[in-house]
Design a protein that fits this description.
It is a single chain. By secondary structure, this protein is an alpha+beta fold. The chain has two domains: about 20-225, Alpha-Beta Complex (H-NOX domain); about 245-354, Homeodomain-like (Arc Repressor Mutant, subunit A). It is built from 16 helices and seven strands. The strands form two sheets. Strands 3-4-7-5-6 form a five-stranded mixed β-sheet. A hairpin with a 2-residue loop joins strand 3 (about 125-135) and strand 4. It is globular.
């Protein structure tokens, strides 16, 4: 087992941020939500070089880290620990742009979720879809792979609410998950979560997923347009072709998802990238990095998220990251930060408490 600033506005059609970007469409709900709490949105947004009018343009992009800081600021200002959930509840599949329209026109739910996982990077580059079938159950969720992200619990709340809205759009408004897992401490008021998900919600878990019967994956999507679907696939492929290659980001995305399923190996990641292991090593070397360094970076980011957003015991976090022991995890974390996990957690409380 292995042991292991930019907050200014971005011009609308500028190239994607090398450190990750997100379209503002799913975040647009924060403007009216702030007003319901008696907070003037412009006062919050100006601190990030933004204005409320920017959220009228769904294709406007901001750095992914700025989106996290903005949600953190909103949660603190409104004293609402579930602010991200409220924003996500308002975000429909269409707010995801091309990936959202693609999934609405896929022939069935399973294909729709595959399309979402393959094309989310056209909407954002900072997190990825978790989609897996495990016998009679299926999982749909979200994982952050961008490093140095604040307010991970707010981002995950938002993303999982969007995932639930997607399933209800595809399967009908009466659809409910069988279980909801969130990597955050339980908020003081659980009622908004229970009311929205209409299912058991578990907190302090090492993943952010909806669980549901896998039979739903065969559900045919009403009003799907096959001609539009094929057109959108061609459009998505063309946009991918025009995107600058980012091999390191692709590796981190796979590592972030793979860690959830057990120890990550060079062999498994190379296989998912359809590369020989030697080719994977060579390409990482060309980017002045290596597999172990990328694995440690991803582990570090997950550790930060779980330490700041949950009250999971350190031993559970070490196990989730596939360390052989708590002491091995403690040594690795101290190398990364100069601090022990316990001390770091004390200094980095959840976003709404900062």
């Amino acid at each position: 087992m292995q042991d292991a600033k930019d907050n200014r506005e971005t011009p609308r059609h500028s190239p994607p941020q090398s450190k990750g970007f997100v379209r503002v469409a799913p975040l647009a709900g924060m403007v009216p939500i702030l007003r319901t709490f008696g907070v003037e949105p412009e006062e919050v947004l100006q601190a990030y070089g933004l204005s409320a009018s920017r959220f009228d343009d769904p294709d406007f992009v901001i750095p992914y880290v700025t989106g996290g800081r903005l949600l953190q600021h909103c949660a603190k200002t409104t004293k609402c620990s579930h602010f991200g959930l409220l924003v996500g509840i308002r975000a429909l599949p269409s707010t995801l742009g091309i990936p959202g329209f693609l999934l609405q026109n896929a022939p069935d739910v399973g294909t729709a979720l595959q399309m979402l996982a393959q094309n989310l990077d056209l909407h954002e580059q900072g997190g990825n879809v978790v989609f897996d079938r495990q016998g009679k159950s299926a999982l749909l969720g979200y994982a952050i792979h961008q490093d140095q992200v604040e307010a991970s619990e707010q981002i995950h709340d938002l993303a999982l609410a969007v995932a639930c809205n997607i399933m209800r759009h595809l399967c009908g408004a009466g659809w409910n998950p069988t279980a909801v897992c969130l990597s955050r401490s339980p908020p003081s008021d659980l009622r908004p979560y229970r009311r929205f998900y209409r299912a058991p919600v578990q907190f302090n878990i090492d993943r952010n997923t909806l669980e549901f019967p896998s039979r739903w994956l065969h559900h045919k999507i009403a009003r799907a347009d096959a001609l539009l679907y094929n057109h959108l696939i061609r459009e998505a492929n063309e946009l991918h072709r025009r995107q600058p290659a980012n091999f390191r980001q692709d590796v981190r995305r796979l590592l972030r998802t793979s860690i959830m399923h057990g120890p990550c190996t060079v062999h498994e990641v190379a296989k998912q990238l359809c590369l020989h292991e030697r080719t994977l090593h060579r390409r990482l070397s060309e980017e002045k990095t290596n597999f172990q360094q990328e694995l440690n970076t991803v582990r570090h980011e997950i550790a930060r998220q779980l330490l700041s957003a949950t009250s999971m015991p350190i031993v559970r976090i070490a196990t989730a990251l596939n360390y052989s022991s708590v002491s091995a995890f403690n040594r690795a974390f101290k190398r990364w930060t100069g601090s022990t996990p316990d001390c770091w957690r004390t200094e980095h409380p959840p976003s709404h408490d900062r």
